[in-house]
């Protein structure tokens, strides 16, 4: 029997039709493009080309939500993807305790330290997780004299449409308050210097800028909410003018909780919390600079969402995000529709929006002028340094003779013993303290921590399965188990000869996924474990 002839090469018309189909894959699940890129060489060549990536971003126009950055007690800077099949799982390689301040234009702004949330930043870091670059620099001098601060990172490239602004020029706006005054300054990556300080003195006492609420950019003006009253700080970062505006005048027995956001019309808006609903307002600015607020619609959230916080909004699509005890919800400005998008548990969650396409991974943008300065750090170099250190310590297996910290090892042994005895609460406690010591001693991405992350995650899973605590605490344990196992996975992916350990982690991730009702994610993790097992066999 003669062999079948090879398939005829695709015609130009067929290739054009394939490209049009691939261009319409949804950007909010970047895994679609990456999975398509491994179908065949022709598709891989197409999807990793800069021409396709540029067309794809221009067609979809609005950068999608890729996930949320969290300031987590254990893993510090943690990214939770919005899609369970997303290949975008960035992890900052720095060993220091960092705190996420802002995400905008594909960039992440971090600061250190976080020992006290009211301390001024010792240093600021702009991180491009897609371009794998970071730049570090000190805050302005007045940071040492203020009690409360907040900051924003902005793309500063001329004429940029913010569809693919990775590695270009940026600005950082830093604002601080100290009860009786407020200061602001702008850092430029081009000049590597801070601007002159803009100041204002409010008539109201106790001026305290809010650190965990959205910051709103309207044109060249940034708005920052304050804790007390209806005070909003207004900063024009081009003219360097800092002033105060007041939110809507609401007659209520108690001062209402309010959040600033950007409306679907592109102006400053305000959401006022009223029991189980949100009342929306929009601000109009007259030519003389005076402002007036116009009341909009009320959005009914339901009694189940009484405890909520507005954590961000999406420019161009008319939605904002709520964090509740049940997870993250989106609220549509026009329809008022409320939708549960992600079961994130935690106090802080900062939305991260950007395109993530195969061409960006293949060809990383060259760094800006800041990258060559002595104050800058390159994330790729940091990752390489991690890799060198990993080779020195071996494959990351954690036997007693390899551990330098005796207290951590004793806690590790006690936690493992408690797990075998099905004392999951004690096991979680021992392994948590062991992990804290090891991370402090070796760094959060050291292979010497991988097995502790894995066993801690597994103990959290079994504790949740045992139903020892309430449903809410079971969800919290499952959420933390998911994070611990993913950190272990990230560490082992850079360690040679760790296939058996990877299989164990993928199986554990699949079990956690099933407990969290993430069927799709569970299937993906199970498939990964099967692939790894086949490779091992």
From TrEMBL:
<protein>
    <submittedName>
        <fullName>Uncharacterized protein</fullName>
    </submittedName>
</protein>
């Amino acid at each position: 029997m003669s062999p079948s002839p090879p398939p005829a090469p695709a015609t130009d018309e067929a290739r054009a039709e394939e490209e049009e189909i691939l261009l319409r894959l949804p950007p909010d699940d970047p895994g679609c493009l990456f999975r398509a890129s491994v179908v065949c060489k022709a598709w891989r060549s197409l999807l990793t080309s800069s021409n396709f990536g540029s067309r794809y971003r221009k067609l979809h126009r609005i950068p999608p939500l890729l996930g949320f950055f969290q300031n987590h007690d254990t893993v510090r800077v943690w990214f939770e993807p919005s899609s369970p099949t997303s290949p975008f799982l960035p992890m900052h390689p720095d060993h220091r305790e960092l705190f996420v301040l802002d995400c905008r234009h594909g960039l992440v702004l971090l600061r250190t330290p976080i020992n006290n949330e009211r301390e001024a930043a010792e240093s600021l870091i702009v991180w491009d997780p897609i371009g794998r670059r970071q730049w570090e620099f000190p805050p302005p001098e007045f940071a040492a004299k203020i009690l409360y601060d907040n900051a924003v990172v902005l793309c500063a490239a001329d004429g940029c449409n913010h569809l693919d602004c990775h590695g270009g020029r940026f600005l950082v706006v830093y604002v601080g308050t100290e009860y009786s005054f407020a200061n602001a300054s702008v850092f430029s990556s081009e000049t590597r210097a801070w601007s002159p300080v803009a100041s204002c003195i409010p008539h109201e006492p106790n001026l305290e800028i809010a650190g965990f609420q959205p910051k709103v950019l309207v044109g060249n003006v940034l708005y920052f909410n304050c804790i007390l009253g209806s005070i909003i700080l207004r900063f024009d970062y081009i003219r360097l003018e800092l002033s105060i505006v007041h939110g809507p005048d609401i007659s209520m027995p108690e001062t209402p909780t309010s959040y600033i956001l950007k409306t679907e019309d592109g102006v400053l808006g305000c959401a006022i919390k009223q029991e189980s609903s949100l009342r929306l307002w929009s601000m109009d600015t007259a030519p003389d600079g005076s402002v007036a607020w116009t009341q909009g619609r009320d959005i009914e959230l339901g009694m189940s969402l009484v405890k909520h916080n507005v954590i961000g909004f999406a420019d161009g699509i008319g939605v904002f995000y709520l964090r509740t005890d049940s997870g993250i919800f989106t609220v549509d400005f026009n329809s008022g529709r409320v939708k549960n998008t992600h079961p994130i548990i935690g106090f802080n969650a900062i939305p991260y929006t950007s395109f993530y396409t195969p061409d960006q991974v293949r060809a990383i943008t060259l760094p800006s002028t800041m990258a060559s300065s002595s104050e800058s750090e390159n994330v790729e170099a940091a990752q390489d340094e991690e890799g060198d250190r990993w080779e020195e310590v071996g494959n990351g297996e954690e036997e007693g003779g390899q551990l330098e910290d005796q207290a951590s090892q004793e806690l590790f042994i006690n936690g493992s013993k408690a797990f075998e005895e099905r004392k999951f609460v004690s096991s979680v406690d021992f392994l948590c303290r062991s992990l804290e010591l090891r991370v402090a001693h070796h760094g959060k991405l050291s292979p010497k921590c991988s097995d502790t992350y894995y066993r801690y995650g597994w103990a959290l899973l079994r504790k949740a399965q045992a139903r020892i605590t309430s449903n809410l605490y079971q969800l919290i344990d499952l959420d933390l188990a998911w994070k611990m196992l993913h950190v272990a996975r990230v560490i082992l992916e850079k360690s040679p000869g760790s296939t058996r350990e990877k299989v164990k982690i993928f199986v554990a991730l699949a079990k956690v996924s099933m407990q969290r009702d993430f069927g799709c994610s569970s299937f993906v993790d199970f498939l990964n474990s099967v692939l790894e097992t086949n490779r091992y066999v």
